[in-house]
Structure formats: C-alpha cells, structure tokens
Design goal:
Elements lengths: L1 H5 L3 H15 L8 E3 L13 E8 L5 E8 L10 E5 L7 H8 L3 E3 L11 E3 L9 E5 L9 E2 L7 E2 H18 L8 E6 L2 H17 L8 E7 L12 H7 L5 H11 L11 H13 L15 H11 L4 H9 L10 H12 L2 H6 L19 E2 L6 H9 L3 E7 L7 H10 L4 E10 L2 E9 L3 E6 L6 H4 L1 H12 L5
Parallel strand pairs: 4-7, 4-10, 9-12, 10-11, 11-13, 13-16
Antiparallel strand pairs: 1-2, 2-3, 3-7, 3-8, 5-6, 14-15, 15-16
Helix pairs in contact: 2-4, 4-5, 5-13, 7-8, 9-10
Length: 472
C-alpha cells in the first residue's frame, strides 16, 4: 500500500528505468562556468561558485539551471548535497542568499542602487558541497525550449532532478564517491523524499553513475497537503495567540477537523472564522516578526502577477512606501531587484532571452501536484536503511512542529533516544529525539519556517554533528 502511494507503480518504474538507461548511453555536453565575482559583493568570492545548465528530457528540451558551491572545508571528502528549494517554484538563489548559502543579501533601506551582499560564515557549504537547482522547470532561470516541456508535475520534477544529478556526476566524477544527501525545506518536504526514492530505485536498477546515497534532510517540511491546518490551531493555542475558551469551542464543535469542515457545521465555521480573524496580523513564517504593511503586500501581488519590474521597484524606492527593511518580504523583493540587474545575470552566465522577469518564487508555475502525501516515501526509505534528519523551527505557523511530529510518530518506529535538549554555545538550542529507522528529529528554538534564515549558527552546528554521526 505504501509503495503504490509513493510511486506510479511497478510498471511505470520499469519504463522510467529504461528511459534513464537510454539517456545514460547518449552523448551530452555540459559546460559549467566558474563565477569569480558577483556585483554587489566586495572583491573576489571567497568560495568556489559554478553555474550552468543541464538539459533533461528525451531531447533535452528542459534546461535546468544550477549553482554549485564547493565545500569550504574539504570538498574531496565532505558530503555532496542536492538542495531542492520549496515553493514549488522558488529559485536556488533564495536558499543561497537568504538561508544556507555563503552570501547574504544585506537588509537595509532600498535607495534605488544595486543591493549588496555580505559573506555568511554559517553557510551549510562550510561542511558540504551543494548543488542548488532551479527546479521544477520555469523556476528561476530554468526554462523549456518547447511549450509542452514547460508543464511538469511532482513525479516528473523528481525524475528530472535525478536525471540532472546523473549527468552532473558524469561531468564531475571526482564527487561520485562522496557521501550523497538530498536536502530541502518547506515544499521541499514533498520533493526531497520522492527524489530520494527515485535515486534509490535507480541504484537498485544498476544505473550509472552510481550515486553514493546515504540519506536526506529536511527543515519544516510540507509533508502532506491536506490537514496541515488541523495543527495550526493547537499551535496557536500553545503560543497564546487564541484564548482557552475559543480553543475549547473549536475542539468541541469541530472535532479536530479545521480544514475540510462540513458546511452544515455552522458553529465550527464560526469558530474557525474567529480564529482566522485573530491571526490576521500574525506573520505565519515566524510568529514574532512583523507582517508587511498593506502597500508592501500590494507590491508582492505585483510580483505574483508579473507586473513590470519598473513599477514594482518604484514602490520600493519610495521613502513613504518603504522607510526601511521592516519585514522579511522586503528582503525577498531585494533579491529580485539584485538578480534582475543585467550585470548580475551576465556574471552568472544566464542565457539571454530565455526567461522574462526573474522572480524568487514563480507563483504562476505550470505545475500539477500529483503526490499530496509524502509519508509513504519516508516509510519506504526507512526500510532501505537511509539516514534522515528532520528539523522544525518552533515558531513557524505555516508548518507547525506538531504536524511534523505527528507524521513521524505515525511511522511507528521505536524511540532510541527520547526527547532531550541539544545545545549550542552552552545554551539550549532546541530539543531532539532519535528513532530506530535512523531518523533524527530536532527543533530549533526560536526559529521560523526556514530555520537557517533565523538561527544560522545553530543550524550549521546541528548539520555538522549529524553529517559526522555525532549526537546533536
């Protein structure tokens, strides 16, 4: 039962295996380019960055753009990571410049000039070689040469990620023996376990080059698309965002189901409406941070609707609209301003004319969700003995830690090490638990939806310990 939910079935896997085998026998040329300087960063980059395109699909009509950053420690032996950004439709640049990469966009008042970058000493690239890809197609700088190739779904995106990886390893054979992990966060909670499963199937089928797959890791992962809201109300109550009385009424009249409510259950609908009204002014990605004002929200709408770049950033330049970096979405808009600069795209070796306005997340992605529950994939990968690290920023309302703990518990593996604190710098950085399926769960205290964005030093320490099989 778990196997059929996690894939299209045995027959389709055979077809996919044959498809990849035929591709593995074809000839292809890939040319990654070393990027030594980036506009906005002072001086030469103190790390190795390579960018390029890799064609996937039967005739390589889909061109996936990637950013490869070598480990800043020991690239010959450190793990190799394929990082899948969430969304779906969010670019690898988002992860590089806001979360786990070696640069950070400086948060400051926007005055119309090119945003600047600073070095991030707590990047995951301190302990790993990381390939960031703009996936699925139509994300970031990835594009299709055909109209049909623009459309993708969950299965196809994961299959194309594996095809990308195999081609990349052919061109970079020095990394074929490195321990390999798939990583991601947010909607990557869907892509990562499925892609890991596809890679595992390819290994069993004997596909070359053989990937030295060891496991996967995820932060605040979207794991199922239906039912997440059921965990937001207990989270909000525990964080004192709603009253005891409202929580008790919700529990009594909704019976724990807050997402798919019977239209005849008027009491439940009324309570849920009150709940949503109370949380209108709460920033879901981190409940302690401010929400953007209405004008900034309108700017975000313009981004989603692909309005002109000039119109959007004229609003950012207005001192009335944006007197300073007051909310996190302003930082994200800065990334759009930075990367849509011609000099930046030239430095990254982007092919001119292949995309329109670059967006950090493509809200109009031609993508169909074909898997809405990744729990069966976690169950399957557990039977194969792969390691996994799952962590939750504990102030995230978007994917509350309760929802992640619930699906982990549903796997029904015995506890090897029970709930205990883990520390950083002599202070409690969160809590952790380990299971017999080689899964480690951890919270990151005080962090939000993309934990390294808020607690970079703690998250790097956590990952380093886990990579090297040390207790958190």
């Amino acid at each position: 039962m778990e196997d059929t939910k996690c894939s299209r079935g045995r027959f389709l896997r055979i077809i996919i295996t044959l498809f990849f085998f035929l591709l593995s026998t074809s000839q292809f040329t890939i040319a990654g380019t070393h990027v030594k300087y980036l506009p906005g960063f002072d001086g030469p980059l103190p790390f190795y960055l390579e960018t390029g395109y890799i064609g996937v699909g039967q005739s390589e009509e889909v061109q996936l753009f990637y950013y490869f950053i070598k480990s800043e420690s020991d690239p010959q032996v450190d793990p190799l990571v394929l990082w899948l950004v969430g969304g779906p439709g969010c670019s690898g640049v988002y992860a590089i410049a806001n979360e786990i990469g070696p640069v950070r966009l400086d948060s400051r008042e926007y005055n119309g000039s090119l945003p600047t970058l600073s070095y991030n000493q707590y990047a995951y690239t301190k302990v790993a070689n990381i390939i960031f890809i703009d996936s699925p197609v139509e994300t970031g700088f990835s594009y299709s040469q055909t109209q049909n190739g623009k459309h993708t779904d969950t299965h196809l995106a994961c299959e194309q990620a594996y095809q990308f990886l195999r081609k990349w390893l052919v061109e970079n054979p020095q990394y074929q023996s490195n321990p390999f992990y798939v990583g991601g966060d947010s909607y990557g909670g869907i892509f990562v376990p499925i892609t890991t499963r596809v890679i595992s199937d390819g290994i069993e089928a004997g596909l070359e080059p053989r990937v030295n797959l060891k496991g996967y890791f995820l932060g605040n992962p979207v794991t199922f698309l239906s039912g997440v809201d059921n965990y937001k109300i207990p989270f909000a109550h525990g964080m004192a965002l709603i009253s005891d009385e409202l929580y008790e009424s919700l529990e009594r009249d909704c019976g724990g189901e807050y997402q798919e409510i019977d239209p005849k259950n008027t009491l439940c609908l009324q309570h849920v409406h009150t709940f949503k009204k109370l949380l209108t002014g709460i920033y879901e990605y981190h409940i302690l941070e401010p929400v953007c004002d209405s004008i900034s929200t309108e700017v975000h709408k313009h981004s989603s609707q692909r309005r002109s770049l000039d119109e959007k950033f004229e609003k950012l330049k207005s001192p009335i609209t944006l007197p300073g970096m007051k909310c996190r979405e302003h930082w994200w808009l800065l990334s759009e301003n930075w990367i849509n600069d011609d000099a930046v795209q030239e430095a990254l070796h982007v092919r001119k004319g292949t995309i329109g306005i670059w967006e950090y997340c493509n809200r109009n992605l031609p993508y169909t969700s074909t898997i809405e529950d990744a729990v069966p994939c976690h169950a399957y990968l557990s039977t194969k003995g792969y390691r996994s690290l799952i962590y939750s920023g504990d102030h995230d309302l978007t994917v509350p830690f309760q929802s992640t703990q619930a699906w982990i518990k549903s796997l029904n593996y015995s506890i090897i090490e029970d709930w205990r604190p883990w520390t950083f710098g002599g202070q409690i950085a969160g809590y952790t638990k380990t299971y017999s399926n080689r899964m480690t769960y951890a919270t990151v205290k005080g962090s939000g939806h993309t934990a390294p964005e808020w607690n970079p030093a703690e998250c790097l320490t956590m990952l380093r310990r886990w990579f090297y099989y040390k207790p958190l």
